[in-house]
Amino acid sequence: MSEAVGMVGRAAGVLRALAELDTDGARTADVARAVDLPRPTVHRVLTALLDEGLVDRVQETGRWHLGPELFVLGAAAARRYDVAQVAHPTVRRLAEVTGESAFFSVRRGEDTVCLLREDGDFPIRSHVLTEGSRFPLGVVSAGLALLAHLPDREVEDYLARVDLVPSYGRPHATEPLRQRIATTRTDGYATNPGLNVEGSWGLAAAVFDRAGRPSWALTLTGIESRFAQPRRAELGALLLREAHALTGRLSAGPSAAAPPR
Predict the structure, then answer these.
(1) Does domain 2-71 have CATH number 1.10.10.10?
(2) How many other CB atoms are there within 10 angstroms of residue 113's CB atom?
(3) pTM for this one?
(4) What is the pLDDT of residues 145-155, one digit of tens each?
(5) Residue 32 phi, psi (nearest 5)
(6) For residues 234 and 175, what is the distance between their CA atoms, to the nearest angstrom?
(7) In angstroms, rounded to a whole number, what is the distance separating the alpha carbons of residues 33 and 26?
(8) Phi, psi of 250 (to 5 degrees)
(9) Could you say which DSSP state residue 71 is in?
(10) Distance CA 211, CA 190 (A)
(11) Domain 82-257, CATH class in plain words
């Protein structure tokens, strides 16, 4: 049983990594680095997934892509889980009103995954987040907003177990992160002052499910000069209003019954 569970976990990790890497396709070595597994192991997993249609491979380049069977499964799951359809008008409106890039992310366990992106008319873009991007809680403004709205016990348990410094630098050490959590709780929305990409700022507000759990987040990102006060406070207030309204819409629909895993 444990071997089977391990195989499922490796396959899931490979699919997640491929989703993040799959722009022009990914080499086996790229996926292996992303999941920190030996290349032969990853190749066996990819080959097995290929047989099931869950991944595809371009023979001319040897690069892997997500497969057609995932689209079929995703379409079936969307009837219950497609909160993105409900959130999309909100994300589009945020981009149009502010001129910035707007996003909708979902909490998946101890990560956030970007589901939607809409760009406003300001010509300079931030590319920290793209659809499918995955970050741990506490990283990027969406992850900070969601982490800050978890109960204290869960926050402290997470901070005690997770070391974000090797991948994301000293600003993500426990004490600086704890201070940003406190600030987020005071402001109501999270601010990322260029911690992931210098000069690229982000604001995010949590969206809650029927049980009052932070399950999704709305985000605005842009260059630092457009996030100075007092505009930052105005954008934060706008995010909070839209997040509150979206919480109400999601709680009223059947998709709200599906909690994050």
Answers:
(1) yes
(2) 19
(3) 0.73
(4) 999 999 999 99
(5) -60, -40
(6) 28
(7) 11
(8) -70, -35
(9) H
(10) 21
(11) alpha beta
